[in-house]
Specification:
The complex is a heterodimer of chains A (about 160) and B (about 290). Chain A is about 40% helix and about 0% strand. By secondary structure, chain A is mostly helical. Chain A has one domain: Orthogonal Bundle (Cytochrome Bc1 Complex, Chain D, domain 2). In chain A, helix 4 packs across helix 6. In chain B, the strands form 5 sheets. Chain B has a 3-stranded mixed sheet. In chain B, strand 9 and strand 10 form a beta hairpin. Chain B is globular, with a radius of gyration of 19 Å. Chain B is built from 11 helices and 11 strands. The chains are: A mainly alpha (about 160), B alpha+beta (about 290). Chains A and B meet through loops of A and helix 1 and strand 7 of B.
């Protein structure tokens, strides 16, 4: 009996917490992101991007995996930076934060359909998406914000 | 072991340096000579309708140490598969009491140059067959033996052995037979179709970006003249369909079935893209 009470209470607390959390930081869905020219001005979440978290998501091969294609001298402790994309050294001086957000969300809206860079917060995927990834974005809205915050620190 | 780790690292660092300078790393200028005797054609004028002027073997895109492994039959780990394949060739299997050798005799003669022309139109099957499917058809119809399970070690060994009998022969797929041209067309469509959550096609890496690096991996033109090939990353011989499945899976797409019509069509097309290159089986890659 006491256990049941405890479970019910815990459930109610969790429900409250979830609802409150969602209300505070409901992210913009991947289909609702507004592009104006080559920029996405509105942050995707209510929580400002954290550059330290962004640095981790940038390097993580299951998240941004950005080093697969980009050189980044700020991350020289990691070996083997790819060169399919442009080097990201000084990228904050070439692009405004809202442009960096647009490129990470869906670079095809910025560079055109031929770019090989995946859209990290887009549902425009290739054919035959594996079951585990169907309807899902590569990064979460918060991870995009964190990575954008990190990119804005990359100055020459 | 230590050397193997250090050499690719050194090359990787060099690549990073080159990337910083905004240069594209060219494939290495070198000659592929097996055991100091047999020189293989690793660059060829591209056939008509090919997006490149010249087709280049993936061998040129690998490190000094990996290239050296392939040049020495004693060092090439896949030669153990060739030896195993030679045993299977003369081993009786199935209800008919036959081995491959019962009908085909000495593979060095009967199979010389044969593998360079696969995949090949097969009227009975009504589609192109690759070496694996041809072996299975032989096992079923002539040996009354079970077909191999996909990527069974014996399947890889026998196919590697058969293809090795064409070492040095130029890749030449005959598109004039049966409906080969329409399978080529379908394969070409698939080559340029972006798949999976990462939204990449074969062309995204091997046509648009060959010569560049994805982390430490130097992207080649994706020619398949060395398959089955020894892949250091897997420490094993890898079949072509095994590798194609891995590539598509890595785009976060559903993994296609081995020997499905899609992968056979893709095999026809990508094999054609390497027209004129010498068969290198078994090649050594990263």
């Amino acid at each position: 009996m006491r256990d049941t009470c405890k479970t019910a209470l815990l459930g109610a607390t969790l429900l409250l917490a979830t609802t409150a959390g969602a209300r505070a930081t409901e992210p913009i869905g991947p289909s609702d992101v507004t592009f104006v020219e080559t920029a996405v001005s509105a942050p995707l979440t209510g929580t400002p991007g954290n550059p330290a978290e962004g640095r981790k998501a940038f390097a993580n091969v299951r998240m941004g995996n950005c080093l697969a294609c980009h050189k980044n001298s700020e991350m020289s402790e990691q070996l083997f930076h790819g060169d399919v994309g442009t080097p990201l050294d000084g990228v904050a001086e070439r692009w405004k934060p809202e442009e960096l957000r647009a490129i990470v969300v869906n670079s095809k809206k910025v560079f055109g359909p031929e770019t090989v860079m995946p859209g990290f917060y887009s549902l425009e995927a290739g054919v035959d998406v594996a079951e585990a990834f169907k309807g899902k974005t590569i990064l979460t809205a918060q991870q995009v914000e964190d990575i954008v915050a990190y990119l804005t620190t990359l100055k020459n | 072991m230590r050397l193997r780790t250090i050499v690719p690292m050194a090359v990787g660092i060099l690549a990073v340096g080159l990337a910083g300078a905004g240069l594209r790393a060219d494939p290495v200028e070198d000659k592929l000579v097996i055991d100091g005797e047999v020189e293989l054609v690793t660059r060829a004028k591209a056939p008509e309708g090919h997006p490149f002027d010249e087709v280049v073997s993936g061998w040129h895109y690998r490190t000094d140490e990996t290239r050296a492994l392939q040049q020495d039959s004693f060092a090439n780990p896949a030669m153990l598969y060739v030896e195993r394949g030679a045993e299977i060739w003369k081993t009786v299997q199935g209800a008919a009491g036959k081995s491959c050798a019962s009908c085909h005799g000495d593979a060095a003669e009967s199979m010389k140059g044969v593998g360079a022309h696969y995949p090949k139109w097969n009227a009975a099957a009504g589609k192109p067959v690759n070496l694996e499917l041809q072996v299975d058809a032989c096992r079923k119809n002539n040996m009354q033996a079970e077909p191999y399970k996909f990527d069974h070690a014996d399947q890889k060994a026998l196919v590697t052995y058969i293809k090795h009998q064409s070492l040095g022969a130029p890749v030449a797929v005959d598109l004039t037979q049966g409906a080969m041209q329409s399978w080529w067309d379908k394969g070409k469509d698939l080559y340029y179709t972006r798949t999976g959550q990462l939204n990449l096609s074969c062309a995204s890496c091997h046509e648009q970006n060959n010569g560049k690096y994805i982390r430490a991996d130097h992207l080649s033109q994706g020619n398949v003249n060395g398959f089955p090939t020894y892949r250091l990353k897997d420490a094993d011989v890898v079949s072509l369909h095994g590798r194609l499945r891995g590539c598509v899976r890595d785009t976060r797409a559903t993994t296609p079935k081995a020997f499905s019509d899609d992968l056979i069509a893709l095999e026809v097309y990508v094999t054609w893209r390497g027209t004129g290159l010498a068969v290198e089986t078994p090649a050594v890659r990263h």
